[in-house]
Design goal:
Blueprint: E1 3-5, E2 8-14, H1 24-31, H2 34-43, H3 45-57, H4 62-81, E3 87-98, E4 102-115, H5 117-131, E5 136-139, E6 144-146, E7 149-158, E8 161-170, H6 173-182, E9 187-188, H7 189-195, H8 201-213, E10 217-219, H9 239-256, H10 265-280, E11 288-302, H11 306-319, H12 326-339, E12 344-345, H13 346-349, H14 387-402, E13 406-409, E14 425-433, E15 437-444, H15 460-476, E16 481-486, H16 494-497, E17 505-508, E18 518-519, E19 524-529, E20 532-537, E21 542-547, H17 560-567, E22 590-591, E23 593-596, E24 600-603, E25 606-609, H18 611-614, H19 624-637, E26 643-648, E27 651-656, H20 660-671, E28 677-681, E29 692-693, E30 701-709, E31 728-729, E32 735-742, H21 744-760, E33 766-774, E34 780-787, H22 793-810, E35 813-818, E36 821-822, H23 825-828, H24 832-853, H25 866-877, H26 881-898, H27 901-925, H28 927-943, H29 950-964, H30 969-993
Length: about 1000
C-alpha cells in the first residue's frame, strides 16, 4: 500500500493549555480574562449574563452556585482539553511536513466572523422584497417532467426547520414558454415582462409571483455553500436596508481586524445583536458564526513520522471489515430489477411515484401504524464472529485475566488487504507526543477535503492545501467532471458547510450554486455498471463525480437524492477507518488501550458501565459527602485513572477526580442512569504533547494529514449513446418475452423442451431465440423469441404454453409471466442486433451441451468446454496473445476486487493444475460442436460488422457464462478468467522458446 502525503497539514488545538487548573479559585481568575468572557458570550449569552452577575457579587443560592460553576467548568474543560474548533474555544492553523518537529503556538490568533446563516437568509429575503421588479430569479434546479406534469422539490419552514416535498404543476403553453425562455439564465420580473409583451402586465406579474411563491422560480441571490459575505448582497433599492447592511459589515470588519481586542468588544457584539434582531424580526440565540485561526511561531512536522502513520493505516485497513453502504446495496437490487443496465435520468429514477425507493423516505405511516414499533422489523439478531473477532476476543480475555491496561497488537495480526475499497484521498487525524508517540484517532473520508474545507474560508494556506487535494483527485480521473454537491438540508447548516470552491463544477440541488460551471440535475443520468453506480452528463458526454467537501453528517438529511449523491462517494466500501472492537464492543466492561509495536496508539482504554455495575453510585448524588470515597473505591477496582473523559457521541467531557466541581458533574451524569456510561482515558494527560506555546505549556491538539493512494489513472468513461434503434418491445410485438420462475434444477430440462419446439419441431416459425438466467428477486430464466411477424405472436405463445403446461401442472414451474423486452442499449449500443445474434448462437450451443451431458451436475470436466468458447471470442477480438493477455488481466482484476482474491487464486491454481491437461482433449472431443458454433458466428459476421471492443466483448462473455452455469455465475467467470490467464501466459512462454 503506497500512501502519498500532501505537504500541508491542519493543526487543530485547544485555546488553553491542558495544564490549566479548573478549581473554583482558578475559575474566578479565568473569568477576569477578557477572552474567556468573549468566548462564553459567543457560546451562550444567557450563561454569560448569569456568570457575570455571580462573579460580580457572589449572591446566589448554594444550588444555583453549583449549577453555574458546573456549567462554567464544562466550558473551560472543553477549552483546555478538546481540539475540535468551536467558536473561540479551539482554533486551527496550517502546518507543513519538514525535517524536525517544531510546532509552537503564539498567544495571538485571528477571528473570522460572519453573520449567522439565519441572518444571511433573512437579509437575502429582505433584499428580494425591497428590489421587487429588479430582483433576479432562476428556474428551480430540480425541475423535471412526468407525463403532463412538471415536478420539482420545494420546502416550507416549519418550527425553524425545512420540510421538503415533491410539488407538481400541470403543463400549459404559457408555462412551457416561460421555462424555455428562462433556461439557465437569471431574469428579473421586468425582463420577463418585456419578453412577453402580449400579456396584460398586472396579470403577468401576478402569475410570475405565483410561480415564485410556489418555488418553481427561485431567488437567484441566496446564501449558498460557496457564498462570500458581503459580496453576495446585491445592491438594494431600499436606502434604509442599504445603510443597515453597511453598518453590519462595518462592525464585522472591526472585529475581524482586531478592534475586539480592546475593552469595547462587548459593545461591538451588542450592536451586531441589535441589527440582526431588527433584520430577522426576532431575538436570535446566535448572531454571528466565529472561527478561530491560531498564529504560530514555528509550524514544521518531521516527515519521518509518515512511515509509522502509513504502517498504522495499513494495519487499520487489515483489521477493519469492509462495510458496503447498506442504502446503496439495497438500492442496487431495486435499480437492477427495474432498469437492469439502462441509463436513466437521475430525477426520474428518484421520483416518488415512478421511481425507486431509497432508504426509508418512501415509507408512509397510516393511522394504524404511526408510532408503532413491533420489535420484529429488524429480524433475528445474531452476530457471526470473523477470524479477526476471535483474535480480538483472545486479546480481551488475556487483558481481563492478567489485568492489563494496554495490549500490543502485532504487525501480522491480520492478512494484508488491498485499499481499493477505500476512497482515493483521506485524512489521518492524530495526536503527537514526546518520543514520537502517535495516537492515530481515525482516518477520515470519503475525501481528504472533508476535514479541512470549512476552514479554508478564512485561511489562504489551508485553501491552498485544499486545492492541492482536489488537483490530485482530478489528475487520477482527468476525463471526469468533479462537481461539488450544493445543498443545505437546514439553513443553519451553512455555518459549518460554507467553503470556497475546490472543484471545477457544481451540482446544485434545491439551493443555489455560485460557480461558473453548474451542472443541471435534469442533464444527469444514472447507470449501474459492474456493480457500481455511475453518473454522467448527457450534454457533456462525460462522467460526473459528486463531491461533498464537508464533514457534515448528511445521514441526517430527509431527502433521498442528496443522500444518494453523498453515498456514492464511498459506495465501494469503507469511507473511513478507525480501530474498534466490532462484534465484541458490547460484550466487555473494560477495553484496554491498543498499541502497535512501532509506537502508535490505535485505541484509548475505555470503560462501559451500566447502571447495574455502577450500583450505589447512581444514588450518591443525594449524599455528595460520601460520593468521593465511593467513587475512589470504584475507580481502584476498575483501574480508572484520576482524570478521564465522559464520552457522549462526539462530545467528550473531562472529569478530574481531584476537583470538587468536576466530581459534582460526574455525580449528576451517573445519576442520569443512561443505559451505558462510557469513560475513556486522556492520553494527553499521560504523555506530554509536542504542541506547545512560547512559554512551554503543552496543548491538546489534532493534526489532520491529508494523503492519497497510488492508483492507476481511471480510463475515460463514455456513457450516453443516442441510439436510433428501438428499445422497448411490448407484448404483442415482434419480440415475445417470457419470464419462467422455477428451480435451477429443472431449468435446463425446460430449456431443452423449448429448444426442441423452437428449433427442431417445425411447428412454429421464428427468426431466433435466446435465454438468460436471473436470480433477482427469485430464480428464473428469461426467454426472448424474435418472431417473423407480429401476427405470429399468439400462435407462438400458445405453442410455448403447451410445452410449459406439464411443468406448471407438476409445480416445477411456479410462474409464467409475459413482460416487455427492454433492450440494453447502454451496454451494447448500436451493436445490440449483433449481440442478440450471438446470444441466439450461444443458446443453441448451450442446449447442445445440456443435451449431450444429460445432467444438471457440473462436477465433470466436460463442463470446462466453456473455456474454449471464451477462447474463441478472444480470437475474434485479436490473434495477438498480448492483446488477449491484456484483456484477461483487466477482467480478472475487476473480479478480484469483488471476491476474496487470495482464496480465489488458490482455487484457480488448484483447478488449473488438475485440469490443464484435459483442455486439449476437450477441444478434440467436442470439435464438431465448436466448429458448428464458429460457422454460425462467421455467417453472422457476413451480415454484420462487430467492433470487438473490451466493453462489448466482456459483456458477451459475461452473458455466455450466465447461460452456461445455473448458479454463482460471477464466481465461475472469475475462475475462468484466472485459468485463461495461466493458459495464455503458458502459450506465450512456449511460443517465445520457439
Amino acid at each position: 500500500m503506497k500512501v502519498n502525503f500532501i505537504n500541508g497539514l491542519i493543526l487543530r488545538s485547544a485555546a488553553l493549555s491542558y495544564r490549566q487548573k479548573l478549581d473554583k479559585k482558578s475559575l474566578l481568575t479565568l473569568w477576569n480574562n477578557r477572552l474567556i468572557k468573549e468566548s462564553i458570550y459567543l457560546a451562550s449569552k444567557s450563561l454569560y449574563n448569569e456568570l457575570d452577575a455571580f462573579f460580580a457579587n457572589g449572591q446566589q443560592t448554594k444550588a444555583k452556585e453549583a449549577q453555574l460553576l458546573s456549567s462554567f467548568y464544562k466550558y473551560m474543560a472543553r477549552m483546555a482539553n478538546r481540539a475540535t474548533p468551536f467558536g473561540l474555544f479551539a482554533g486551527c492553523s496550517s502546518v507543513y511536513w519538514g525535517a524536525a518537529n517544531k510546532v509552537k503556538l503564539t498567544a495571538k490568533f485571528r477571528r473570522h466572523v460572519v453573520p449567522d446563516a439565519v441572518v444571511s437568509f433573512s437579509l437575502a429575503k429582505q433584499i428580494e422584497n425591497a428590489n421587487q421588479i429588479s430582483a433576479g430569479y432562476k428556474l428551480n434546479n430540480t425541475l423535471y417532467k412526468v407525463g403532463d406534469d412538471l415536478r420539482f422539490i420545494t420546502y416550507q419552514i416549519i418550527d425553524n426547520q425545512r420540510v421538503y416535498q415533491v410539488s407538481a404543476i400541470a403543463c400549459n403553453e404559457v408555462l412551457d414558454d416561460i421555462i424555455t425562455v428562462v433556461g439557465d439564465k437569471i431574469w428579473s420580473k421586468q425582463q420577463l415582462l418585456e419578453k412577453f409583451p402580449d400579456f396584460e402586465p398586472d396579470d403577468f406579474i401576478v402569475f410570475i409571483n405565483d410561480l415564485i411563491e410556489g418555488q418553481l422560480l427561485k431567488p437567484a441571490f441566496e446564501p449558498a455553500i460557496g457564498y462570500d459575505f458581503p459580496v453576495f448582497l446585491q445592491k438594494t433599492d431600499d436606502p434604509g436596508l442599504r445603510d443597515t447592511i453597511n453598518e453590519l459589515v462595518d462592525l464585522l470588519n472591526k472585529i475581524n481586524n482586531g478592534d475586539v481586542e480592546s475593552s469595547n468588544w462587548f459593545s461591538l457584539y451588542t450592536a451586531i445583536e441589535q441589527i440582526t434582531n431588527h433584520i430577522t424580526g426576532r431575538e436570535l440565540k446566535d448572531q454571528v458564526h466565529v472561527t478561530r485561526f491560531n498564529e504560530m511561531e514555528s509550524r514544521e512536522l518531521d516527515q519521518s513520522l509518515q512511515w509509522k502513520i502509513t504502517k498504522a493505516i495499513v494495519l487499520l485497513n487489515n483489521v477493519s471489515a469492509v462495510a458496503p453502504n447498506k442504502r446503496i446495496e439495497q438500492f442496487k437490487g431495486r435499480f437492477r430489477k427495474r432498469y437492469e443496465e439502462q441509463s436513466v435520468p437521475l430525477l426520474e429514477a428518484f421520483d416518488t411515484d415512478t421511481g425507486i425507493e431509497y432508504g426509508q423516505w418512501y415509507e408512509h405511516e397510516t393511522l394504524f401504524t404511526e408510532g408503532l414499533y413491533t420489535g420484529s422489523e429488524g429480524g433475528p439478531s445474531w452476530v457471526d464472529y470473523t477470524e479477526i473477532d476471535f483474535k480480538m476476543l483472545n486479546l480481551l480475555n488475556r487483558a481481563k485475566i492478567e489485568k492489563q491496561y494496554k495490549v500490543i497488537i502485532p504487525d501480522n495480526f491480520a492478512r494484508e488487504r488491498s485499499p481499493d475499497h477505500l476512497p482515493f484521498s483521506m485524512s489521518a487525524v492524530f495526536q503527537l507526543f514526546e518520543n514520537d508517540m502517535v495516537y492515530l484517532e481515525r482516518v477520515t473520508g470519503p475525501g481528504a477535503l472533508n476535514m479541512i474545507a470549512r476552514f479554508a474560508v478564512g485561511d489562504a494556506e489551508i485553501y491552498k492545501t485544499g486545492l492541492e487535494i482536489a488537483a490530485k483527485e482530478i489528475a487520477n480521473c482527468p476525463d471526469a467532471m468533479f462537481a461539488e454537491v450544493i445543498h443545505m438540508p437546514e439553513e443553519r447548516i451553512l455555518n459549518v458547510m460554507m467553503h470556497p470552491p475546490f472543484w471545477p463544477h457544481e451540482l446544485a440541488y434545491i439551493d443555489d450554486a455560485k460557480g461558473s460551471s453548474v451542472l443541471r440535475l435534469d442533464d444527469i443520468y444514472i447507470k449501474l455498471e459492474q456493480g457500481v453506480f455511475k453518473l454522467f452528463s448527457k450534454k457533456h458526454q462525460r462522467e460526473v463525480v459528486p463531491r461533498l467537501s464537508s464533514a457534515y453528517n448528511y445521514n441526517r438529511s430527509q431527502h433521498p437524492i442528496y443522500t444518494f449523491l453523498c453515498d456514492i462517494q464511498h459506495q465501494r466500501g469503507n469511507g473511513s477507518l478507525s480501530f474498534n472492537w466490532g462484534a465484541l464492543s458490547t460484550d466487555f466492561v473494560f477495553f484496554p488501550r491498543v498499541e502497535t509495536s512501532f509506537g502508535v496508539i490505535l485505541h484509548r482504554a475505555t470503560w462501559k458501565f451500566t447502571p447495574a455495575i455502577l450500583g450505589e453510585l447512581c444514588k450518591a448524588e443525594k449524599f455528595m459527602d460520601k460520593f468521593g470515597d465511593l467513587f475512589n473505591s470504584f475507580r481502584n477496582e476498575w483501574l480508572l485513572p484520576d482524570k478521564f473523559y465522559i464520552i457522549k457521541g462526539d462530545n467528550e467531557l473531562l472529569i478530574d477526580t481531584e476537583n470538587e466541581i468536576s466530581i459534582q458533574v460526574l455525580a449528576k451524569e451517573i445519576a442520569r442512569q443512561d443505559p451505558v456510561l462510557i469513560l475513556s482515558e486522556c492520553i494527553h494527560l499521560q504523555h506530554e504533547a509536542i504542541v506547545r506555546d512560547v512559554d512551554g505549556d503543552p496543548y491538546m491538539h489534532q493534526f489532520v494529514a491529508p494523503f492519497h493512494f497510488d492508483r492507476p489513472l481511471k480510463p475515460p468513461y463514455f456513457q450516453y449513446i443516442e441510439n436510433t434503434l428501438q428499445r422497448n418491445f411490448f407484448p404483442g410485438s415482434e419480440w415475445l418475452f417470457i419470464k419462467l420462475y422455477l428451480s435451477s434444477n429443472i431449468a435446463n430440462e425446460v430449456l431443452l423442451k423449448l429448444d426442441e419446439l423452437l428449433n427442431y419441431s417445425g411447428t412454429v416459425k421464428i427468426k431466433q431465440w435466446f435465454f438468460i438466467r436471473y436470480h433477482d428477486p427469485d430464480n428464473h430464466i428469461r426467454v426472448r423469441i424474435n418472431l417473423l411477424d407480429e401476427g405470429d405472436f399468439q400462435d407462438v405463445y400458445l405453442a410455448v404454453r403447451e410445452v410449459l403446461s406439464p411443468f406448471l401442472t407438476s409445480g416445477q414451474l411456479h410462474v409464467v409471466q409475459l413482460d416487455t423486452y427492454v433492450r440494453e442499449l447502454e451496454r451494447y449500443g448500436q451493436q445490440i442486433e449483433q449481440a442478440e445474434g450471438l446470444f441466439c448462437i450461444e443458446t443453441s450451443f448451450c442446449c447442445s451441451v445440456f443435451r449431450l451431458l444429460e445432467s444438471n451436475r457440473y462436477d465433470t470436466e466436460d463442463w470446462l468446454l466453456i473455456f474454449w468458447l471464451i477462447k474463441d471470442y478472444l480470437n475474434l477480438m485479436s490473434n495477438d496473445l498480448n492483446d488477449q493477455l491484456q484483456f484477461v488481466e483487466r477482467q480478472q482484476a475487476y473480479f478480484f476486487a469483488e471476491f476474496d482474491d487470495k482464496a480465489v487464486k488458490i482455487q484457480i491454481d488448484q483447478l488449473y493444475r488438475k485440469y490443464h491437461g484435459s483442455l486439449n482433449n476437450l477441444l478434440l472431443a467436442y470439435d464438431d460442436l465448436l466448429r458448428q458454433k464458429r460457422m454460425q458466428v462467421e455467417l453472422l459476421l457476413q451480415n454484420y460488422t462487430i467492433d470487438w471492443n473490451a466493453k462489448f466483448l466482456s459483456s458477451v462473455i459475461h452473458m455466455a457464462v450466465n447461460r452456461y452455469f445455473s448458479s454463482r455465475q460471477r464466481l465461475h467467470e472469475c475462475i475462468l478468467y484466472g485459468m485463461l490467464l495461466k493458459f495464455l501466459k503458458s502459450e506465450k512462454a512456449r511460443k517465445g522458446k520457439v
